[in-house]
Amino acid sequence: MATTKFTDFMRKLPAPLGYKGLNIDKSKLDKIIFCLNIRDHEGYVYFPEVMWAIFYSIIGKNDKELHECKPMRNIMRKVKNKYSGLGRNTSLDMLCGNKFYRNEMTITKYLCGKVILNNLRKLQKRKIEKEIAQRGQDNNLGETKIYLEEKSK
Which listed residue, 9, 54, 140, 146, has the most CB atoms within 10 A of its CB? Predict the structure, then answer.
């Protein structure tokens, strides 16, 4: 799923995993997503990371016995084969969001970066429009100004 659609996914996912039917503020949902600590993979999130992190946040149980049980090892093997972007060293703790990703991209960092980028693009667009409008007003000075600009280039 695209990372940009993750907040909508959380709003549409039924309780207890999601917030469908609940009126939750954007800031509170952003904090919850931050606490889930799910990695972003170049604009996409992987299903196992999303579901394990949400499940773990509700259950709060991720003990050593769970890591070592045979069914869980089989599940982890299948997950690693299907989602090669997770890497071979992926553990259940990493899927549950227990590892702090200081140098890696997370959903929260990605979404914040998108907001900054979109605002920067809007600012640049306004600046260009303002310059174009300013040039339109300056054209009233006549052809002398155009001649001087061409000569300076």
Answer: 54
